Write the structure tokens for this entry.
Amino acid sequence: MKFEWKTKYTWILIVVIIAIFSLVADFLIPISDSEEEFWWSHIHGFFAALGLFGCIAIVMIAKWLGRYWLQRKEDYYD
């Protein structure tokens, strides 16, 4: 099934809106000082950025593994 132009960009728009809502909510919800152990727990948007860069890293590593480790040449079985 091939994605149409409108469908693909609709999903991208939905994801961007959810990400923006998540960042805005992170700034509006106060950070509790009671049981935070690490210094990065006090940075607004840190976990959203960590999740974004983690997902990008997973996709890039999977593409690299697929291209250089899993794929074979077309004449592999000849």
About this structure: The radius of gyration is 20 Å. The chain has a mean pLDDT of 81. The CA atoms of residues 48 and 54 lie 10 Å apart. Residues 5-70 form one domain.
